[in-house]
Design a protein that fits this description.
Number of strands: 0
Mean pLDDT: 85
Largest sheet: none
Shape: globular
Low-confidence stretches: none
Number of helices: 8
Radius of gyration: 17 Å
């Protein structure tokens, strides 16, 4: 168990880019508007459990059910695609049973601990020490918690027009991430 600052920083930056909580601010605000309350602590704790568990047993679980990591990532790209379309077009594709709060779905999964993050964890595990990856996960989840807790303040600062503009912009960014995730994994499915 060797702590390597460079590994921790690199893994943190990779996960930060994949989780993209700053880009998810419009989704978080939209969820808060729909359900009234976001359970930040629960979302972060569940995300931590999902990500750390997947770091240790993810590949075995996928192999057990006959799903490779590329298929998992392609499926995740479709979820991100639908979320992006909702943001860009202002439509609702994914219907919920009107939850009272937002924590596990869609915050913990697929927004925070989504397929992209999980695929990245498996890739990082091949190169870095597990403890360094866990520290990177914790750093990212602290940042996620801060964003979730301050989403109301962010909403007040931006106002409705600002939120709508940012939602559309980040919808396009999320769409690009979905396309990239799809494109980088689809080829391996046909080999």
């Amino acid at each position: 168990m060797i702590f390597d600052v460079k590994e921790i920083l690199t893994a943190t930056m990779i996960l930060f880019a994949i989780i993209d909580i700053s880009g998810s601010i419009p989704i978080v605000i939209s969820l808060r508007q729909k359900v009234g309350h976001i359970q930040s602590e629960k979302a972060v704790i569940v995300s931590a459990i999902i990500m750390i568990a997947f770091l240790f047993i993810g590949e075995r679980i996928l192999n057990l059910i006959g799903v490779d990591i590329n298929s998992f990532a392609v499926a995740g790209s479709f979820i991100l695609l639908f979320m992006a379309l909702e943001m860009i077009m202002g439509i609702q594709l994914m219907k919920d049973e009107t939850p009272q709060t937002a924590s596990i779905v869609p915050l913990a999964f697929p927004l925070i601990a989504g397929p992209g993050a999980m695929a990245s964890l498996l890739a990082l595990r091949a190169e870095y020490q597990v403890m360094n990856i866990i520290i990177a996960i914790i750093i990212n989840l602290i940042l996620v918690y801060v964003v979730l807790k301050t989403s109301g303040k962010i909403e007040r600062i931006l106002g409705n027009q600002g939120i709508n503009v940012i939602r559309k912009i980040f919808g396009v960014v999320l769409l690009a991430i979905a396309v990239k995730l799809f494109a980088s994994n689809i080829q391996s499915l046909f080999q």
